[in-house]
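Re: [ENG-882] Designed sequences occasionally contain unexpected residues at chain ends

Forwarding the minimal case from QA. Structure tokens:
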């Protein structure tokens, strides 16, 4: 049996549920990504940006954005009848990073969304998952009008380890997001298998 899939002729089993985080900088598209694939109405904790937050909210590059996630986004997608992903979008602003420890508890892996116009905004998320040995994949959200760079150039700019997958994606497009989610699950499973193998040798 792989994940929750039953053998032919046997009764179905409960699907395996996996927790995936979606992280990245402010305005990179985390809420959009969760909403693009969720088969339930996504839970959102967005609040309007205010004048009081102007000194600490860096909106350069996303000047049109007028809301921010203050706790999390939540959605669910069934990848197969035996495999369900629960998606938790993390807050992008530094003042809400205290939520990350709670949200990362029990996570199989993470997607770090990146914007090539503001690559430095995803460094904190990459560092976070590296320090905690949580498998992650970088999804470069290809915004309209943003310059396109070869994946190898983006990888070098982010100083990613060779084993970390990097995919170009469109956070608005369901099929594109599904590819990213399948990628992070495969990467996390492969990392877990390597750790088990290392322990067994």
């Amino acid at each position: 049996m792989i994940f929750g899939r039953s053998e032919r002729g046997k009764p179905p089993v409960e699907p395996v549920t996996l927790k995936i985080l979606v992280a990245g900088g402010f305005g990179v598209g985390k809420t959009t990504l969760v909403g693009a694939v969720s088969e339930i109405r996504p839970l959102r904790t967005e609040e309007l940006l205010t004048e009081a937050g102007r000194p600490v909210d860096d909106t350069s590059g996303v000047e049109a954005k007028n809301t921010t996630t203050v706790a999390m986004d939540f959605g669910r997608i069934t990848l197969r009848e035996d495999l369900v992903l629960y998606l938790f979008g993390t807050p992008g602003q530094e003042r809400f990073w205290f939520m990350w420890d709670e949200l990362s508890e029990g996570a199989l892996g993470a997607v770090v969304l990146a914007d090539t116009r503001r690559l430095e905004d995803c460094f904190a998320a990459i560092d976070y998952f590296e320090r905690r040995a949580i498998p992650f994949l970088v999804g470069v959200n290809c915004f309209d009008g943003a310059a396109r760079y070869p994946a190898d150039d983006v990888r070098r700019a982010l100083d990613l380890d060779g084993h970390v997958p990097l995919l170009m994606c469109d956070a608005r497009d369901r099929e594109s997001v599904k590819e990213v989610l399948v990628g992070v699950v495969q990467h996390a499973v492969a990392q877990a298998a390597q750790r088990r193998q290392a322990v067994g040798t």
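QA comment: On inspection the terminal residues look reasonable. The longest helix spans residues 174-200. Proposing we downgrade this to a documentation issue.
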